[in-house]
Every structure is written in C-alpha cells, then in structure tokens.
Amino acid sequence: MQVMRAAVAGASGYAGGEILRLLLGHPEVEIGALTAGSSAGTPLGALHPHLTPLADRVIEETAVEVLAGHDVVFLALPHGHSAALAAQLPESVAVIDCGADFRLRDEQGWTTFYDTPYAGSWAYGLPELPVGGGGRQREALAGTSHIAVPGCYPTAVSLALAPGYAAGLLSGEDVVVVAASGTSGAGKSLKAHLLGAEVMGAMSPYGVGGGHRHTPEIEQNLSTASGPGAAGVRVSFTPTLAPMPRGILATCTARLLDAASGTDAAGIRDAWAMAYADEPFVHLLPEGQWPSTASVLGSNCVHVQVTLDERVGRVVAVAAIDNLTKGTAGAAVQCMNLALGLPETTGLPMAGVAP
Amino acid sequence: MQVMRAAVAGASGYAGGEILRLLLGHPEVEIGALTAGSSAGTPLGALHPHLTPLADRVIEETAVEVLAGHDVVFLALPHGHSAALAAQLPESVAVIDCGADFRLRDEQGWTTFYDTPYAGSWAYGLPELPVGGGGRQREALAGTSHIAVPGCYPTAVSLALAPGYAAGLLSGEDVVVVAASGTSGAGKSLKAHLLGAEVMGAMSPYGVGGGHRHTPEIEQNLSTASGPGAAGVRVSFTPTLAPMPRGILATCTARLLDAASGTDAAGIRDAWAMAYADEPFVHLLPEGQWPSTASVLGSNCVHVQVTLDERVGRVVAVAAIDNLTKGTAGAAVQCMNLALGLPETTGLPMAGVAP
Amino acid sequence: MQVMRAAVAGASGYAGGEILRLLLGHPEVEIGALTAGSSAGTPLGALHPHLTPLADRVIEETAVEVLAGHDVVFLALPHGHSAALAAQLPESVAVIDCGADFRLRDEQGWTTFYDTPYAGSWAYGLPELPVGGGGRQREALAGTSHIAVPGCYPTAVSLALAPGYAAGLLSGEDVVVVAASGTSGAGKSLKAHLLGAEVMGAMSPYGVGGGHRHTPEIEQNLSTASGPGAAGVRVSFTPTLAPMPRGILATCTARLLDAASGTDAAGIRDAWAMAYADEPFVHLLPEGQWPSTASVLGSNCVHVQVTLDERVGRVVAVAAIDNLTKGTAGAAVQCMNLALGLPETTGLPMAGVAP
Amino acid sequence: MQVMRAAVAGASGYAGGEILRLLLGHPEVEIGALTAGSSAGTPLGALHPHLTPLADRVIEETAVEVLAGHDVVFLALPHGHSAALAAQLPESVAVIDCGADFRLRDEQGWTTFYDTPYAGSWAYGLPELPVGGGGRQREALAGTSHIAVPGCYPTAVSLALAPGYAAGLLSGEDVVVVAASGTSGAGKSLKAHLLGAEVMGAMSPYGVGGGHRHTPEIEQNLSTASGPGAAGVRVSFTPTLAPMPRGILATCTARLLDAASGTDAAGIRDAWAMAYADEPFVHLLPEGQWPSTASVLGSNCVHVQVTLDERVGRVVAVAAIDNLTKGTAGAAVQCMNLALGLPETTGLPMAGVAP
Predict the structure, then answer these.
(1) In this predicted model, what pLDDT tens digit does every residue of B217-245 receive, in sequence order?
(2) Closest CB from D203, D208, D251 relative to C205
(3) Keywords of this protein's UniProt record, alphabetized (chains A, B, C, D) (predicted)?
C-alpha cells in the first residue's frame, strides 16, 4: 500500500502534539507539514521535546498552500478557524477537524454556546456510538472525507451512557454528569489557575450550572442513541479540573425509564456488554472493577463500567479516557483511518502507560 | 484559665496525627498521652515526622488507665472500637469520637452498612448544620461531653446542600452527589491501589451504586435540615479517589421543589448566604468563584458555592474541605471546644496552606 | 503588649500570600495595608482564596504613603524594587526585604548575577547560621530594623552544610549541591513550562553550570560559617524543578578537610548535633531518618540529616524546608520578631501539614 | 519472518507489566506464557488494567516447564531468583534478566551490596555504552543469548557521563551524582512511605552515604568507558524519591582531568555529540535545553545535556529516562532484539507521552 501523507495545522498545541505522537507509530502514514501561528519558525523539539524523532522539524506558518499537497490534514485549531481553512483546501484532501466547529447539527445549540458564526456540521467522528434503532455512528463515516472529531467530555459521557438509551432503558429527563479532567484539557493557555503550583492538590469545578460548551454535544449524542422517536435528553453537566496532566473520568447517572423499572443490575450490564462486545476500543470492565484514568493514559481505549443503584433507581455509568488520545488525537487518527479506508484500529495504541 | 489535658487514642494514623498538629497550635490544651495498637513503643517522629515538636514522644498502648486522667480523649480508631473504650472511661472525661460508631441515629442504617453491632448515637458534631424549623445543630452540642465527629464526605455534602433543605427549596427525592477525595481519606492501609505510583494520574470511583457507608449519614443530615414534616432524602452518592493527598470536593445537585419552582439563581444564593452569614468556618464564595480543595488545605474552613441550572431545574452546590481538618480532626477540635466550654473557633486555622 | 501593625508590599504573589497566612496566626501583629502593582483594586480573595479571613480586603497600589504608617513593612517585590522604596520609608519603620537586593555583601557577586545596580547590604536574616569562630548570625540581627531575608535555596544549603564549616571539618574547594524545588519557587510567572500539565511528572534542572543567582549567596554563607581565616568556598550548584507545589530538598556534599580525615560518621554527626542543639527551628533527625519535603510543608522548621560516605571521603548533608515558609515568609516573620524585639518563634508553625 | 514467542516471568510487577506493554506493540513477537508467584491464577486485567488487550489472560505459576517452550524468556524477578531458573531453561531459549543477578563482573562488588550468593555475570545489556579505546558495549551483545539488563539508575548515570570518560576528559576520582526517581522504581512493595498520600509533595533521599546497590554498577560502567589503562571511578551517589510515578533525572558532575583542563564547554559538548551521533535512543538536546523526565515518559529514549561549570572546574551532565522503559523493560526488549537478531530499535517507542 502507498504511504499517505498527513499534515497537522496547529502542531504547537497539546492536541497537535498528540496527533504527531500517534502518527509516529502509524505504519501507513508519513508526517508532512507541521504548521502553527505564532510559533512558526520554531523547531518542534522546543515545543514538544517528547517527540524526539521530530525534534529538528521546523513549524511552518498555517497556510492553504502548505497544507494542500497532503492526503489528509488534521486541524487542531481554536474554534472558529476551521471553516475558512477547510473551504480552501482541495476536495481530494481528507480533513479531520479536532475543533468544535462542525460537531453540532443544531444551529441554536451552537449559537447559545459559541461566539463565532455557525459553520454547519460534518460527519461526527464517534464510530462506536450506538444509534437508536440499530447500527453505529461508524456507518455514517464510511466514505466521508470531512470528519468532526468529538469533544473529549462528550466522548466519555456518550460512551458511558449511550447503551442505556439505545436499549430503551434510560430516561432522558434528568441526567446528571460530573466529570473530572486532567489539566491538559485546558490547553496551553497561560492562565494563573493553570500553573503547576495552583493545580497540584486542587480539585475545582468550572462552567457550573450548564455553562460548558460540551453540553449540547452530549445531549445530541444521547439523543442519537435514543433514536428519532424518543424524547430529548437533558443533562446537568459539571466538569471539574483534577490534579493530573491527562485523563477524563465521567461519572454519569440517569434514571431508569418507568417502562424499564423491572430491570435489575444484571440486565443493565447485559445491555452494555452487548453494545460493546465487538468494539475494539471500548472495554466494559469485569463486574466490580471500576475505570481509572491511569489505566488509559496514552491509549485509545475507553474503560466503562455500569451498575444500578436500586435504592434510588438510578443507573450509574462511569467511563475513563485519555482526553488527548481517545478524547482528541486518537479519535482523530481513528477517523483518518476510516476516511482513508484503512482498518479502523491501525496505529492506535490499546494499552495504556501505567503505572 | 486552666490548661486542659488531651489524650489521643489512635495517634499513629492520619486522623490522630492531624489532631496532634491542631492541638500543637491550641492555646488552651496540653497534649497528654498518645496511644495506639501495634505501633506502641515507637517515637512519634518515626510515624509523623511532620510533628517536629513531638518527635521524641513515645506512643503508648491504648488502654483505659492511660487515657483516664485527661480532660478530653480523642478516639481515632477503626469503627467498632469506640464503644467499649468509651464505656470504661470516667464520666468526667469528655470523649470525642472520630469514628463512625455513634453517628447514626437509625439502627437500620447502621446495620445495612457496618459489620459491628449498633452502639447507639451521640450528639452529632456538625455545629453549622441548619436544622429544619430553625436553629443549628450547635445547640444540640452545648453541654455535651460525648460527641460523634461527622464523616468527611457527609460534612462536605451536608454543608453544601443543607441551606436549600432548611429553606424548603429542594426536593429530597433525587439528589445526586459525586465527590472526589484525596487519598489520605483511605487511611494508612497498605493496599496496592493506594501506592503512590498507582495514585498519581488516577481518578477512579469506588463504592459505586450506593455502597458507601457515608450514604445514610448524608441522608440523615439532609433530613435534619429538612425538618420533621418533610419527606426523607435519598441520595445517589459516588465517591471518587483523586490524585492528591488531602481534600474533598463535593459536587451536589438536587431538584427544586415544585413549590419553589419560581426561585431564580439569586434567590437560591440568598438562602445560602443567610444560612452561613454568621458561621465562622463556612464561607460562601463571591458569585462566580468556585471552591477548590487547594484553598482549604490544612484549614478548618468550608468553601461553598451554589447556582441554579435553569435549563434542567437543578441546583448545583459545591463544597470543598480538607478531609483531615474540617473533615475529621478540625471538626474534632471544634467539638472539643464546645464540650469544654471554650470559644468554638479556638486554635483552629482559618487560612489554608496554598499554593 | 501593644499590637504591631504590618504592611505587605507585593501581597499578590506567593511570598506575600504566605506572609499573610503566617501573620493571621501571629498573636502580636495586626495586618495593615496590602499593596501590589497591577492587581491593585482586586479583593484579596480573588488572588489568594485560601486566606479566607482576608477575602474582602482590597489590594492597594504600592506607595510610600500607604506603607509609611506601620510598625513593620514586608517587601515581597521583584529584585531591584526594594532599595528605592526602602529609602523613602521613615526610619522608624522596620523593613523586612524578601527580595535579593540587600543579601550580598560583595558587589561583584551581585553584578555578576543581577542586572540592576548594587544597592548595598543589610543584616542577613538567617539567625541560625553558625559563624566561624563562634556565635550565630542571630547576634548580627539584634536591634536591627532593616533585614534581608535569605533566598530559599541558600537557607536549605547553608543550614545543611554550615556546621561542618564552623567545626573546621569540611573543605570549601569542591562542594557539590543538587537541590529540588517545588514550582511555587518560580513564582506566579505565566510561562508554558510552569503549567500544571507540564509540571506534573516532570523533574528537570535549570540554571545548570553555575548560572543560578543563589550561588554567591550560598558561598557567602558557607564562608561566614568557615570564619575569616578559612579559604573561600566554591559550590557547584544545580537546582531542579520538582513536581510539587512547595518544598526544597537540598542534597549537599563536601569533602573532609585533610586535617579532619580521621573523623568518622559519629564525629560528623556530633558536630551537627551540637550546632543545632538549641535551635528551635532546625531539627537534626534521628540517625537513619532522612528529611522529606512533605514533613515541613507550611512549617518554619528545617529538617537536617548528615552522614559520611567513607568510600569516597565525602560528607553528605541533606536539608528539607518549605521554600515559602522557612525559605521566604517564615524567615521574614522570624526576622520581624527579632526586629520588633519579640520572642523569635512567636507565631511561627513548627509542625508541618502532612500527609 | 517467523514470529517469535516470548514469556514473561514476574508478569505481575511493574517491570513485567511494562515488558508486556512494549511487546503488544512489537511486530515480530507473540506474547506467550505470563507467570508469577502469589498472583498465579489471577487474570492480568486485575493486576494491570492498562493492558486492555491482555485483560483476560491468566497468570500461571512460574515454572521451567511453562517457560521452556519459548524463543525468549524475560525474567522480572526479585534478585537472587534468576540464576536457578536460568540454569534449568534449555540453551536454545534466549534469556533476558531484568534483575541484578548477572550485572556485576566483580564478585566483591556483589557481596558488598547483595545478600545472595554471587551468580556470575552475563553480557551487560547497555548497547550504547562507549567502551574505552573505541567501540560500544553493543559489540559484546552480538550473538549472545543471555543478557543482563542494566539497572535504571546506572543506565541514566552511565549514559550521562560515559562520553567524558571515553574521550579521556573526566577524572574518576570524585564523581558526584544525585538522581531523582519516580516511585514505581520502588516496585509494588506495600510500604507506608510509598502510599500516595505520603509520596505526593515529598522529595526525600534514601540509601545516602554510599549504600545504594547501583553504586558498583555505575562504577563498573564508567570504568568500562574509561578503558583498561585508566584509574578506577569512585562515585558519591545519592538517590532520591520524587513525587511522580515514573522517570529518572540524574544530575552527574565530575572534575575535568588535569590533562583536559584547557577544554571549554564547546569541546565538552563535541565529545558528547560525537559519542551519540549515531545512537538511535540517546538524544543530546540542543544547547541550552535540559532534559525533563516528562519528555521521555513511556519512551525508550534517553535525553542528555552537558555543560562545563568553569568557575568550579566541573562538568555537569544530566540524563532523563523513563525508569520502567529505557530503565528496565525497554532495555530488555532492546536486548531481546539483539539476541534474536532483529533490528535493535524494533517495536520500541521513541516518542514520549506528554504532557
């Protein structure tokens, strides 16, 4: 097979760096142009010293002519920048957007949470998502060349809860999610509260009360899983910052639908087991073992566990991912594999780096 | 005033060590006997090297005759050990129990979650808890000599939510709490999953699905806050282990009662502000500022913030405490102050150690 | 006794915040004006949320007229700013400078390492430093009103090694020091390598090869300990950044002088034990127990241990301090106590916050 | 090419787990038997939840007959266990020992530091080590079937300093090394000082004064680099435990030989650059950039930097490795590649997982 050439726009950030780490281990892809804004001209080794084999590569200015001659272009840019760039790239180039720009199908959801104009939506790159009525989101990705990579929290939350919606077990009325993220989730922004001295020892919430931009994306995904006939899903979502570099732990609870009130913990578990039996990256842990972010560090796997709290009638589902791998760059490479017609798991690590 | 003498049974553990740290800064108390089980005979400096002024003090065997001649005895023992010991101490000795033995008023709540016989209940040492119908739990502590120190999670969760129950705003039907704790909360037990290499970088839940022993204590407190006429409170409680030595962040959500459905975020905030206006240790943060565990490290303060998520009709209240200070040892010293007739805040740090 | 009033210039930084934390626990001092530069007008609670009792105090602009009416003024400013400010304050005001401006007695040492003009030197605030020929640096501080607080690394390194110089045991020719510091040592500067995601999991050196500004201060102190007749001291000093918020661990080795080549490990230990027998804040650990930064968190104590590596003829001395407490703000308060004629230990915590 | 089968004895520990992580990404090796002692019968997923693809594999009892039928056997056992096991394996089996048993060529060095009988020595598996007089240790590994994997500290220290010895620049008389290690270096032993709550925020030394077992191995390697004519090397080695799961940062200083006293920093740098120009895993950073453990997490690379402190006449060389990858398991796989005649870099990650 011919080797594909990939460019990364936004190579200076954490998402860009993680895409490059994964592409270094990808057998079918050659790393082409690396571009960024203010750090153009800098050797990559000064920005990402962990990418030893690329230390001498120099960042170029992000520009269409630099990106155009590649088989695939990854966009790892702040939201609002992808649309213009994508529009100028030749149609033959597959484009994988790690930003939020093309994730939401509902314009109002976008305008409520974002401050740039709505750009439309692309195929949504969460292949494992069960779709209400049968099938997976994967099917919507076959043959696409433009894919919107999901947000990190939506990936964890959606995969934690979706089997319950696809199986018609969960009420969408009163979902409560509290998720903890490593601080790389905030990117490289130079803010005092992200300094190491502030972060270590600190757990704190942010965007409380419905303010986080990932809320409509979570609701969109759980509605997809519920299927067209079902009621919409409403989520109380509280993200928290945890004292670790990477990882998301999403603790998600939803009430059993009245129609499913006879279901017991084993029945719940069965629904999740069936949903993920054939998914290479989603791993339902053995009963009694709960996910830990440490176990998926650097891996594209999602660890999931679920139980029923019978006292209160709530299903509790927990997922752990690496926010930079399955939560961003791993998903992006997985989407690239689908867009380029490669086996979906090519080049993606399934083992975490632990302890 | 005459100096009081205090003994600590269970001085080798984290709770015992923190009681000693606080007593070292207490102007009215002299540290008497330090006792423990298997570490009797060891100098304290080998177990708690941070307690420099006590480095040469030697741990004695826990025994009634060693403890008896003190004004106050702190029990920092595994659950099930306090009742027998307390029964043998002279009545003149104030006893502050940091264990779970005497916290629950409901025998069934005890037997569902604990494996030792029910020992009854003592005055519950959460002075700041608003009591439904008016007043505070503080009033139940005046003149008492035997006090049960609250659990760490119940302290954070109860103080986060109680104002809403005392003010008749919140439904008790479907409370959802997800809390993160530093690993000192698990004590000094030598278990592989508590090793530093496993803990750093790891967020993981435990006791999921209603299994944590603090659940009935949380429900008891919120029912106390609701008052006698109100319906009971049911909590879906998921504790998680966070990669930090100390601290609890409790993210708590409850639905507005139908009767309160017209209340807006400002109204909610007012209820919390009124509840804690005169509480020295409970600090409602300015609007928009959310609690962080790092800000209460080593302090007896509780930082609280609350808002209303209007989209989903849930109040979200968050509290941060130091699990070893306000969550255990600070509360114990506060209770001791009340039991001995000292000003409640004597010797208790209000500033955290940060960054 | 009349309560003294203290002002803090530079209250927005980590050193300023730690001074305030300590003053909150000081029985003889009342906190007066808090000043800073760009954050003037901000409530302290937004900058130092851990200082709960001061949350509503508002930062003022740093200016002579704001600071003048106090008994003592702490300067916690970037180097180069103290001299001008101090010159304008009334002579009756005690001034404690936490910056580097007045630490070095040797102008050349200053100009080699700093980029602002040499401002002279003040009494050097390391009371415990043994002085060659007998006595302590404490004696030079009695009755002074202007004191230069030592740097954090020099405090740890000097107290680790000085007994050996004061006792005529160590060669000054080839001292090697490697020290690890928590990231608060770098202050609140917004630099990418200080972000939490970069810092956690990272040990890295900086200023390698003699470039760190604390080198001449370390050499000055060890020369002071050696006494006037002795040869100068030359130090190879490598600081490293460690993944923790606070703390310095200084590992210091020096060769035995030929004249002392018969000394064994017990003889070495005796010299250290004698040097610190009466020092309240310097604690020589029991034989075999080595210092840990975790044991001095938030405390003004220094933990020291020493041994002789007979195979290679080097003494290895290790000291642990909290860089913000004994390393900066605790030392500043200790100096203030001396300047104001208070007992030296007043208001200073001797127990660390652990675990 | 035919796929090789590898067994891992000691699969339950951190070294065993890391070998498995790397073998999962190795294109020429199939994972065979996994054995251990007390955890035989346990599914691997309960011990190493990060090794998702092997979660259902069950640990077997360590026994010759289980291990014999493989092309290569990795021994990741406590010291003293490898000799007996290795002696019973068929000669056709390549054996890669991660323990200390066969590292030291000098029996006295062994008996001074270890409590089990001396077992002899195998080919020493540090291919990159420059050998005095020319060549590399790699040459001694060609065609060998039994290889002793170096210790983690010796790998970092030896690669940091060896170029200076091979080039005849450094004195062996008075080397001083201070190294920091992540806590996985202490293995999974259940000791109180390794608990997460104790480790976070803690830097502390251990084995101070020449007591660490890696000392003779470091000296052996630097003597190898010096070559047969040179004087021996003596090292003052102080290891410290750092609050991170993985990583070693070794700060190493040695005096210039008198004969090399005219060499300047550029000359030093040239020697290191030449030594590692063709080494795939040893990366001399650009001038001014210093190694960080975070940059080599999970990677088999070594980051090195060196300078000359002209004031004191000492070369300061710093190396960062991942103690479990290049420090143990990565080196083991690299040795396996050599033993099996595969390209040396096969299956070994060169990019770290950061941030």
Answers:
(1) 999 999 999 998 888 899 999 999 999 99
(2) D251
(3) Amino-acid biosynthesis, Arginine biosynthesis, Cytoplasm, NADP, Oxidoreductase
In this predicted structure, what is the pLDDT of residue B1? 59
Which active-site residues of D does the annotation give?
A: 152
Is B353 part of the contact surface with chain D (CB cutoff 8 Å)?
no
Best of A22, A203, A305, A353 to mutate (most D CBs within 10 Å, chain D): A353
Best interface-test mutation with D: which of C161, C170, C173, C176 has the largest number of D CBs within 10 A? C176
pLDDT at C229: 80
Mean pLDDT of chain A: 96
Residue spans of chain C under pLDDT 70? 1
Q: How far is C234 from chain D (nearest CA, A)?
A: 7
Interface size, chain B vs chain C, as Cβ–Cβ contacts under 8 Å: 115
* Percent over 90 (pLDDT), chain C: 94
Q: Does any CB of chain D come closer than 8 Å to the CB of residue A227?
A: no
- Please tell me if residue C301 touches chain B, with a CB cutoff of 8 Å: yes
Tell me the three state secondary structure of residue B25.
Answer: coil
Looking at residue D130, the DSSP 8-state letter turns out to be B
CB within 8 Å: D21 and A48: no
Nearest-angstrom CA–CA distance, D243 and C354: 14
pLDDT tens digits, A140-183: 998 899 999 999 999 999 999 999 999 999 999 999 999 999 99
Q: Which helix (H) or strand (E) element contains residue C315? A: strand C314-321
The residue assigned the tokens 């069934």 is B108
Confidence category of residue B210, pLDDT binned at 50, 70, 90: confident
Q: Please tell me if residue A289 touches chain D, with a CB cutoff of 8 Å.
A: yes
Gap from C202 CA to chain A (nearest CA, Å): 11
- Domain residue limits, chain C: 4-121, 153-321
Q: Cβ–Cβ of B351/C289 closer than 8 Å? A: no
Contact with chain A for residue B195, Cβ under 8 A:
yes
**Backbone region of residue C45 per phi and psi (left: phi > 0; alpha: psi in -120 to 50; beta: other values):** alpha
**Model ipTM over 0.95:** yes
Q: Mind listing the pLDDT tens digit for each residue in B316-352?
A: 999 999 999 999 999 999 999 999 999 999 999 999 9
Q: What is the mean pLDDT of residues B105-117?
A: 93
A17 to A74, A194, A207, A331, C149: CA distances (angstroms): 11, 19, 26, 14, 43
Minimal Cβ distance to B353: which of C43, C292, C297: C297
Its CATH class, for the domain covering D153-321, is: alpha beta
User: CB-based contact (8 Å) between B114 and chain A?
Assistant: no
Say how far apart CA B58 and CA C167 lie, in whole Å. 32
Query: Strand order of the sheet with strand A123-124?
Result: A60-61, A29-36, A4-9, A72-75, A94-97, A146-148, A123-124
Contact D200 B244 (CB under 8 A): yes
In chain B, % of residues over pLDDT 70: 100
Are both A4-121 and A153-321 of the same fold? Answer: no
CB-CB contact of C279 with C334 (8 Å): no
The answer to whether the Cβ–Cβ distance between B249 and A240 falls below 8 Å is yes
| pLDDT mean values, one per 10 residues, chain D (355 residues) | 91 98 98 96 98 98 96 94 92 96 95 93 98 94 94 98 97 97 96 96 95 94 92 94 98 96 95 98 98 98 97 96 98 97 97 98
Active site members of B: 152
Region label for C151, one of left (φ > 0), alpha (ψ between -120 and 50) or beta (otherwise) = beta
Contact criterion met (CB below 8 Å) for D147 and D335: yes
Q: Which residue in the set C180, C305, C316 is minimally distant from D203, CB to CB?
A: C180
Decide which of 3.40.50.2300, 3.40.50.720, 1.10.490.10, 3.40.630.30 is the CATH code for D4-121: 3.40.50.720
Question: Could you tell me which chains touch chain D, where touching means 3 or more CB pairs under 8 A?
Answer: A, B, C
C327 touches D at CB < 8 Å: no
**pTM exceeds 0.95:** yes
